[in-house]
Write a structure and sequence with these properties.
mainly alpha, 158 residues, 6 helices
Amino acid sequence: MVSSNKQNPSPVNLDDRPSVKKLFKNLKKSLPKLEELLEKCSGEWKYEDPIYRFYHQSFKVYGLQTLTLKIVKTLKSLRPGAPLDDWFMQIIEEGTGKEHELEHNECWLQMTRPMLEAFFHARYFLEMAVKYGRELDYPPGSLPSGWAAFLYLYNLRF
């Protein structure tokens, strides 16, 4: 577990860039909504079942795209008007916007695996937002890996 940064930050251990401070403020303000969404996408019907549906070769796995896009929209709302990481967005684009067609059953992995990959990446960043929104009192200068990844999502990792 990452130790909290509850003591007064030293200038060396504080990321005081205005863009990071604004992101952090929005993260803290949105934490209840983020926690609720993480809980929703961690339960049996929104996490366990879609993964099972992938292996069961059920068209129901396609429903995972809706939740993925909801997570992305929520993450974007933390830094309005700023683009998210290009690789992340490529993964999301390749894993969403698909409708099931019977021919997809012949190339199941090719068609559906990107959906799971997009969901896993989106859920990971949501999880990091919740984790560090709970644990941190200010944006640190020395970065835990999950916080560093979270900053990459917003193109703020230096």
